[in-house]
Design a protein that fits this description.
2 copies of one chain form a homodimer. In chain A, strand 2, helix 4 and strand 3 form a beta-alpha-beta unit. In chain A, the strands form 2 sheets. In chain A, strands 1-2-3-9-4-7-8 form a 7-stranded mixed beta sheet, with helices on both faces. Chain A has a two-stranded antiparallel ribbon with strand order 5-6. The longest helix of chain A is centred in the last third of the chain and has 19 residues. Chain A is globular. Chain A is built from 8 helices and 9 strands. The first copy, chain A, is α+β, with helices and mostly antiparallel strands. Chain A folds into 2 domains: 53 residues, Hypothetical Oxidoreductase Yiak, Chain: A, domain 1, CATH 1.10.1530; 181 residues, Malate/L-lactate/L-sulpholactate dehydrogenase, NADPH binding domain (Ribosomal Protein S8, Chain: A, domain 1, 2-Layer Sandwich). The first copy, chain A, is 36% helix and 21% strand. Chains A and B meet through strand 3, strand 7, strand 8, helix 7 and helix 8 of A and strand 3, strand 7, strand 8, helix 7 and helix 8 of B.
């Protein structure tokens, strides 16, 4: 699919103009960053899964340090867009934990944390997905590839945005035809038990806070300090996570 | 050093009885779990670093959803013990972000998150340490081995406790003589850029919230659901993170 076909195709699937714009921007940005598994191939997948009309969820608990959003089957992309917009419009004075219950899929998590960091907020986001990773020693598939994204703003240049899936490949790679289901193992080779432990821990963390359906948890905070400019000086040109298009 | 020598040795270093008891329990538990790098070898290291008398820090901002503790050079072990005790005595109604500024070292993070999970709370904890990991493609050492621990309680049996360092080995392994400084690379082999991104992201997250000295950030929350019993049923005997003594 070509970039210019994304918006018309999404409108044709029944999404509103506002929804289609959010989705198209996400998929196009994923392509630009080389994360094709989260890119345009997802439009046909959305069509097959009949996601249209499921909305963006709603805010059901709203405290200074805690929010709970209930998707009731919402499209994760649209609910996370609404959540990010809400944080930027009404940021926490210090820090806030935001639970996104019953929404799927959440897409390229760095897309969301980057929005928050570009608005001056520190953000950590993780999300669950279907169980595809078994323990490296064997047994049933217990954990999703459950990515973790961390974005930290900078007063001098772009934020640093880490966005790491715990799989050797992502399910998006499988959708995009670049990997097979058999490649879906925890990353790390001999140390794959570490990525498995992270994937399972993140999954139980989200499950414990969100409930039994797929969901996400975001921590958003005001920065107390500004560590990125100093790190970039020490790094003296080394590419940092989230810098420019990447194959990661 | 033998287990029974830990307490007298710590008392001999000038720690109070309460402090020595906290430290000895931490080191002995690390040995029991096979995490010798966080174990009894740390007592001689504490003596060399002249940590005695630095105290446990104090709570300087206390909101329902946010706490900031300032260590002013405190011993991380003692400050994290105080922080965990405070969360268990006054847990959040929903969720709380706790920043531990200017304290070092934080030890075996799973030791702290397990305490919280055994008290029925969900806990995520990360901490910074001296920069020892370079980008896999080369350049200066930019990130500590910065572990991430996630603990989730269960209504039916022990919690699941993930505790993963981003290094192929830990600095504790170097202190214990089981690895060399050259072994201190991000874990993951060909995918080591993922562990590097996590280490750097976690470090900037802590630095942005805590300030320029070493610190830690804890997220502690009430569980909304109870996912561990169901996961253990599906796992049907597969060892889950934090189950029994481990070499991880």
């Amino acid at each position: 699919m070509r970039t210019e076909d994304a918006l018309p195709k999404l409108l044709g699937l029944g999404f509103s103009e506002a929804e289609a714009a959010i989705l198209a921007d996400h998929f196009i940005e994923a392509e630009r960053r080389g994360k094709r598994g989260h890119g345009l191939a997802r439009i046909d997948w959305l069509a097959d899964e009949r996601f249209e009309g499921r909305g963006a969820g709603r805010l059901v608990v709203d405290e200074e340090g805690y929010q709970r959003w209930d998707g009731e089957g919402a499209i994760g992309y649209l609910m996370l867009a609404a959540i990010c917009r809400a944080q930027i419009e009404s940021p926490p004075a210090t820090a806030r934990v935001v639970v996104a219950a019953d929404c799927f899929p959440s897409g390229m998590l760095g897309y969301w944390t980057r929005q928050l960091a570009e608005a001056g907020l520190v953000a950590v986001l993780t999300a669950t997905s279907p169980p595809r990773l078994a323990h490296p020693d064997g047994g049933p598939r217990l954990a999703g590839t459950n990515p973790l994204s961390i974005a930290v703003p900078s007063t001098d240049g772009p934020p640093v945005v880490a966005d790491v899936s715990m799989g050797e490949v992502t399910y998006g790679d499988v959708i995009a035809g670049r990997a097979t289901e058999e490649d879906l193992v925890p990353f790390g080779g001999k140390k794959a038990y570490k990525a498995f432990a992270l994937a399972l821990g993140l999954q139980l963390f989200v499950d414990a806070l969100a409930g039994e359906d797929y969901g996400a948890v975001l921590v958003v905070a005001q920065p107390y300090a500004d560590p990125v400019p100093g790190l970039r000086r020490v790094a003296s040109g080394v590419r940092l996570p989230g810098d420019g298009p990447t194959k990661a």
